[in-house]
Amino acid sequence: MVLELSQQQIHLLHSCLAESIEELHDEVLHTDGREMRGELRDRLNQLQALQRVVASLMQREQAAV
To answer: Is the separation of the CB atoms in 10 and 54 below 8 Å?
Structure first.
């Protein structure tokens, strides 16, 4: 599936991802359960990968302008 997002939507998505990553990072640091911390880390890695994709989209949009 391919999503077409406006530049404004891409910036909003980037901001939301940054906020979610920050909150999830804090949760990873403060979680006592080893297994749960591993699962949270995996989700954190997924969000960070998605944020890198969105950041590259932002750079491409800026270069096109």
So the answer is: yes
Give the pair of three-digit tokens for residue 32. Answer: 């006592």
Give, in order, the Cα–Cα distances in Å from 8 to each of 3, 57, 64: 14, 12, 15
Q: What is the pLDDT of residues 17-51, one digit of tens each?
A: 999 999 999 999 999 899 999 999 999 999 999 99
Token pair listed for 51: 């944020």
17: tokens are: 């991802």
- Asked if residues 20 and 50 have their Cβ atoms less than 8 Å apart, the reply is no
| Closest by CA position to 14, among listed 51, 59, 62 | 51
∠54-1-40 over CA atoms, to 5°?
A: 55
Among all chains, which residue has been given the structure tokens 């998605």?
A: 50
Q: In the chain, where does DSSP find H-type helix?
A: 7-30, 34-64
